[in-house]
Amino acid sequence: MYGAGEKSMNPISQRLLNQQLICPQFTHPHDVVAWMGALQAQEYRMMRWAVEMRTHRPSAKAFEKAYNEGQIVRAHLFRTTWQLVAGEDLSWMLNLCRDNALRGMAGWMHSSGVDIPRAEQETVQQIFQDFLSTSRIAQKADLAAALEAKGITMHDHRLSYHIRLAEYSGLLCSGDLFPMKPSYALAADKLPRVVPISKEEALAKLAKTYFRSHGPATLEDFVWWSGLNIGDCRKGWNAIKSELVEDRWKGLAFFRHQDSRTRGFRSGTVILLPPYDEYLIGYKSRHVAVHQDHMHRAHSGNGIFWPIILRDGIAVGNWTAAGGKMQTEPFQPEADLDEDALEKELARYARFLNE
Fold it and tell me: Which CATH class is domain 24-190?
């Protein structure tokens, strides 16, 4: 079906549908994460809303249960940033991004004057494993205390590198959900056993997942989102190209998977988008959803993304729930926000916090 599209389309309505932001198809948070492939999880608290807002009935407690049971895990994966993935997907995704991630880490460590010999890494990871074999869950301070009990003291920055290395080795994954700070667990204890797949299968699976959940999108968007090299992205792309549908918008070619949705958009929709949400960060270019004059209100030049109000898929304002008080700020005083729709979405967020 590659190249089969004939009619001009609107990528906004289709992205809202396929990202489950309107007419969501799922009731369980795990199913949302598995559908999306990976959701940016920079903000430890707001990542919960990023998942649950894509379900029929958002519930903070439902997210916590799925997270604590290992159905959803938080890890450093694509682009070496925090992301949420389904527990059964972590191992093959980690295999795809590990080499790039370790090269990036080596660069950061070198620029910081940090050198971690292989022997030190093995010693520290053995201590992590021994400690978590009995404690099950540990926060960063607990891991530091476990090292000190063995006569190893290190500054916080070095410990962070060790934890990241333990993640990439497959030893650690996210533990239980705490209010403010992350915790860690042994991946072997927390995650389901899965049958390994080849790199070729993994690339095809990643490409299918992306264009089904994020489409319509470009190949450049997929390269950006995955953080993989163009050669690997093209391998995944080519493996599924017969399943892709091409459409055009403003003279540009966009692609979606044949299983993605194209119908169901309802006008007048107002959505409270959390910071770092996939609706914006999942694409190399955000001009589809954010007017150029307002880009600085959506994200900074150094990678900071703010909470956004969407009206029919277009960014029209900022919002915050700091201190438990909801506040909204349109980009322009004359922004035409449906007050009833906005109040309904604010109420949906408030219910999520209490359910």
Answer: mainly alpha
